[in-house]
Amino acid sequence: MPLRDHFRPPVWKQASWEGFHGMWPGTMAQQLSPKLPEGFMVEPRVHLGSFYEIDICAFDGDEPHGRMSAVNRNGGLAVATEAPPQPTFVAEFDPTEQYAYEVLVFDQERNRQLVAAVEIVSPANKDRPDHRRMFVTKCAALLQQKVCVSIVDLVTIRKFNLYADVLEVLGQTDPSLGPAPPATYAVTCRSRRLDVGTQFQSWAYPLVVGQPLPELPIWLSDDQRVMLDLEASYEEACRVLKIIP
After folding, report:
1. Which parts of the chain fold into alpha helices (H)?
2. CA-based R_g, the chain, Å
3. Are 44 and 25 in contact (CB under 8 A)?
4. Alpha carbons 173 and 146: distance in angstroms, whole number
């Protein structure tokens, strides 16, 4: 079945991008899991910023805070705490939240070392320069750590190619991108150890609405890989959410 445009009718009236984006990593993980050699495991991960996910929680108990009670537990008078010092600088602040939809592959025999990551681009990753920079920096850092990185970008409403931006950070260019890199694409990148140094490799494919999605190699080591059938996992996510062509 062909790739749909999830940001225009009729698809955006059938299912939200957020629902599809949350479902797709799970179907990718289901497809990859039986293909992985013994000792490797895969898990989907969705992070929508601190507003939606809290890793460390602090709870407000029943005890008053900010100042001590007028009477302590022993019945004596309690001393009020001092007011906090005033800040030396105050300004409006809009914290940048990095949205992440990804599939991670770990080598359990190496203490759950991350060996591959599939990053699914969201509109928020492409809407502002700082968001694009954060996404690109993350991918570049993973590649420098010898983690295989795949980027899948279905966002038709933002005309940026984050793969090209990753290459720029790494000091590389891909001639196949041409002067106007496609806004939707799928690519796998890795850095491979050679006897004389390290080699950068990528497998890049433009994604076209109405056309099937490709397979991507997911490298577990320099000479081990499994294939991720984007088409199959994509169709399964669309089927579950009842998204029709």
Report:
1. 11-14, 17-32, 123-126, 129-144, 162-169, 230-240
2. 23
3. yes
4. 19
167 by Cβ neighbours in 10 Å (0-12 / 13-18 / 19+) ranks as buried
CA distances from 59 to 36, 62, 67 (A): 40, 10, 17
Q: Is 28 a residue whose pLDDT tops 90?
A: yes
CA angle at 158 for the pair 157 and 162, rounded to the nearest 5°: 140
Residue 237 near residue 24, CB atoms below 8 Å: yes
- What is the number of other CB atoms lying within 10 angstroms of the CB of residue 172? 12
Mean pLDDT is lowest, of 86-95, 107-116, 217-226, 236-245, for 86-95
In sequence order, which ranges of 71-185 are alpha helices (DSSP H)? 123-126, 129-144, 162-169
Residue 132 neighbours by CB under 8 Å, 6+ apart: 125, 126, 160, 162, 165
Domain ranges of the chain: 11-50+96-240
Q: Whole-model pTM above 0.70? A: yes
Apex CA 151: angle with CA 149 and CA 154, to 5°? Answer: 170
Integer Cα distance of 12 and 129 in angstroms: 26
pLDDT digits (tens, 9 = 90+) for 56-86: 333 333 444 443 334 444 454 444 456 654 5
Best CA proximity match to 117, nearest among 148, 153, 162, 146? 148
The rounded mean pLDDT for the chain is: 81
The span from the CA of 193 to the CA of 64, in Å, is 59
Residue 149 exposed, middle or buried by CB count within 10 Å (0-12, 13-18, 19+): buried
